[in-house]
Amino acid sequence: MSSRPVSLEELEATFERELLTDKRAAAETAYALACRHRTEYDGSGQHPFKVAKEWAVRAIKILDELPAEHIDQVTSTRMSVGGVDLPELLHSGVVRERLADLLQSDW
Questions:
Q1: CB–CB of 82/33 below 8 Å?
Q2: What are the C-alpha distances in Å from 39 to residues 33, 47, 96, 104?
Q3: Residue 15 CB coordination number (10 Å)
Q4: How far is CA 40 from CA 34, 37, 48, 91, in A?
């Protein structure tokens, strides 16, 4: 990703490409999309928290499918995605903890 602002649409397209080629990158992008949707309205008519929760669940699902026995398997491959700083270690437990408000919401 470049340093210029990335739209939610561009980030979603990136996720779709990564999902086919690099599941860890796709999980990182899904996490970033959850964080972005949590604070940005996308014009879809859906509540931002609902969309953010969907992306958080996607990130967790992908991360749960990836190996996580060793630290190198859960180390983020990038420092940030789409303007969202990634945690140094990213696994489903981190997503559940950092986005607990979304995951526990009724959306």
A1: yes
A2: 10, 10, 18, 17
A3: 23
A4: 10, 5, 7, 24
Of the candidates 103, 6, 73, the one whose C-alpha atom is nearest the C-alpha of residue 15 is 6
**Residue 8 near residue 42, CB atoms below 8 Å:** yes
- How many beta carbons lie within 10 A of that of residue 88, not counting itself? 11
Q: Which carries the bigger pLDDT value, residue 42 or residue 70?
A: 70
| Cα 92–chain centre separation | 11
* Cα–Cα distance for residue pair 34/40, rounded to 1 Å: 10
Please state, in angstroms and rounded to a whole number, the distance separating the CA atoms of residues 102 and 107.
Answer: 8
Confidence of residue 45 (pLDDT cuts 50, 70, 90): confident
Directed axis angle between helix 23-39 and helix 48-65, to 10°? 160
Residue 2 has pLDDT above 80, yes or no: no
Q: Report DSSP state, residue 32.
A: H
* All residues at 6 or more sequence positions from 25 whose CB lies less than 8 Å from its CB, including other chains: 18, 77, 78
